[in-house]
Design a protein that fits this description.
The protein is of the alpha+beta class. Helices cover about 50% and strands about 20% of the residues. The chain has a 5-stranded antiparallel sheet with strand order 2-1-5-4-3, sandwiched between helices. Strands 6-9-10 form a 3-stranded mixed sheet. Strands 7-8 form a two-stranded antiparallel sheet. α7 crosses α8 (about 255-265). About 15% of the residues are buried.
Length: about 350
């Protein structure tokens, strides 16, 4: 994260204070000479000497102030150079922009990883350099329009060898000596490991660890989304499939073989289940029972729809297996009988 840059008015206050002290000191000397001359009625030559002394003292003070300013500017230049070199080692990315958003300086440990030629960055608008999704872009633009700092804006960079990096961007306004905003100063932090770890955790939460297939949690989220986005004249259908006698395959050949079979079955449709599957050196045959339920015809919630599909599946298995049944409400059952 970058530290907030405050308006550099302290230097101006210091110089003004030094000048004010010099004027006050000269005023005191002048008044002392005038008082001394009026009391002792000194000659004109003495008054000229007085003026000469005051002039010499004034020039001396101006020279001292000028030397002080020069040393201060040299020290600032050295400090800025040292900070620039330090930033190259201490940060993954850093940059400075003008008020229009054009990059005027950039560096950091990862700069050459993304941009071997710094000239491809300097002079360009930094929004054309970074890649943001719509949400992150809106967060950044809101901060820029309000001229406020922003932090933890997630962006994507690609190395020259094709590797993808996730970079967290933070920046704060940059000020001139008069206190006016003249651009932004920002840093980028490599958070690739954190984002990839979060992605792995999300995948583990939504998929079965043995088969790699989407689990019930992921399935329910998908169905809830589809039901919420479906129009009134659209039906969302759920097919509950149960592999007949799957337990015997697990018991005979082991769970590893059963998991492999599940992966193969998941990539096919019911009509293709009549042909044999080859798992390793084994040739296995299986059939399936299917229960079908539709929303909003049979239910309007995910849990209700799953329950209806399970009931239809139970009926298919009770009808001899290797078939499918559509969920029937009591009304449709009576209509079918009549």
């Amino acid at each position: 994260m970058s530290s907030a840059a405050s308006p550099p008015n302290k230097k101006n206050h210091l110089r003004f204070s030094v000048a004010l002290m010099a004027v006050g000191f000269l005023g005191i000397i002048a008044l002392a000479f005038l008082a001394f001359a009026s009391v002792h009625e000194l000659s004109r030559q003495f008054l000229l000497l007085e003026s000469a002394i005051i002039l010499v003292v004034t020039l001396g003070l101006l020279i001292l102030v000028a030397r002080h300013d020069k040393k201060t500017e040299e020290a600032e230049a050295i400090a800025e150079s040292q900070l620039s070199h330090l930033a190259d080692f201490a940060t993954d990315l850093y940059w400075e922009t003008d008020l229009e958003g054009h990059v005027i300086a950039a560096g950091g440990r990862l700069m050459k990883t993304f941009f071997p030629d710094i000239n491809h960055v300097v002079g360009r608008h930094y929004m054309s350099v970074i890649k943001l999704d719509d949400t992150e872009r809106e967060k950044m633009l809101n901060a820029l329009q309000a001229i406020k700092p922003y932090s933890d804006i997630l962006s994507v960079f690609h190395a020259t060898d094709g590797r993808r990096f996730y970079i967290s961007l933070s920046a704060t306004p940059r000020y001139s000596k008069s206190g006016a905003v003249i651009g932004y100063l920002g840093v980028g932090t490599n958070v690739t490991r954190r984002i990839e770890a979060q992605g792995r955790l999300k995948h583990m939460a939504e998929h079965d660890m043995l088969t790699g297939l989407a689990n019930r949690y992921s399935f329910q989220n998908r169905i809830e989304k589809d039901i919420a986005e479906s129009a009134e004249d659209e039906n969302i259908a759920i097919l509950a499939i149960d592999l007949d006698n799957f337990k015997s395959i697990n018991d005979t050949f082991g769970h590893q073989t059963g998991d492999a079979l599940l992966n193969l079955v998941a990539a096919r449709i019911v009509s293709s289940l009549s042909r044999p599957f080859r798992v390793g050196g084994l040739e296995l045959k299986c059939s399936a029972s299917v229960g079908v339920a539709c929303a909003p015809l049979h239910a309007e919630s995910t849990q209700g729809l799953l329950k209806c599909a399970d009931l239809a599946l139970y009926e298919a298995k009770g009808s001899g297996r290797s078939c499918y049944r559509l969920f029937q409400t009591p009304e449709t059952r009576r209509a079918a009988v009549n």
